[in-house]
Specification:
The protein has about 200 residues and is α/β, with parallel strands linked by helices. The protein is about 35% helix and about 20% strand. The protein has a single domain, classed as P-loop containing nucleotide triphosphate hydrolases (Rossmann fold).
Length: about 200
């Protein structure tokens, strides 16, 4: 049975795509981003493809490409598209599949559903949460984990991305009991080599 891992973040701009590339490289997994909102000239799937080193990963086509960098429900409305949860069919693969979400766990997909209630259970078996240290990140991380637990969604672990904060990371791990899969520092070298190096350090 192949693993289907959903990557979500505690908010926007926490490094979901960057960390997704590291997970893809670590597991030599396939990658799929069901909804791309904005940046259609520079798709996240193409970014991940260009910065991994293995030749096993496949990159699956997005189900929805939305022109505006907004919540999927709002971006779809602007584009005159109605997103249906039933349209999200997991790509066929014999490989592990890394699925990158759009925004955080409670981001609306359409007027009736959101990521955690409707999309994650349909497409994935486990989740990885990306956290980033900033003022308020403890609260955002603890709430995200509590939400996942309340929905009975398996949490494989947390990846801390960016500048370290040992006190913040320690209290999050102690409070939640969730495994730390890795701590990714700010990239200070060639991105492709950095992703390969960090992939080798993940405990996943």
């Amino acid at each position: 049975m192949t693993r289907k891992i959903f990557i979500s973040g505690i908010g926007t701009e926490v490094g979901k795509t960057f960390c997704s590339a590291i997970v893809v490289e670590a597991l030599k997994a396939d990658y799929w981003k069901p909804v791309q909102a904005g940046e259609l000239d520079d798709l996240d799937s193409l970014w991940v493809r260009d910065f991994i080193s293995n030749d096993k990963s496949d990159f699956h086509t997005e189900r929805y490409l939305l022109s505006e960098p907004m919540s999927p429900h709002a971006a779809a409305k602007i584009d005159g598209i109605e997103i249906e949860i039933s349209d999200f069919v997991v790509p066929k693969t014999d490989n592990t599949l890394v699925i990158e979400g759009a925004g955080g766990l409670m981001v609306p997909i359409n007027e009736k559903g959101d990521m955690i209630v409707d999309l994650i259970p349909q497409v994935a078996d486990e989740t990885i949460l990306i956290s980033k240290n900033y003022l308020g990140s403890i609260n955002h991380t603890l709430m995200s984990i509590e939400l996942l637990k309340s929905r009975g969604i398996k949490i494989t672990g947390i990846i801390f991305n960016g500048d370290p904060n040992p006190e913040t990371e320690a209290i999050i791990l102690k409070t939640t009991g969730v495994k730390c899969l890795g701590k990714v520092p700010m990239a200070d070298s060639d991105i492709k080599e950095f992703i390969k190096e960090q992939a080798g350090k993940l405990d996943i």
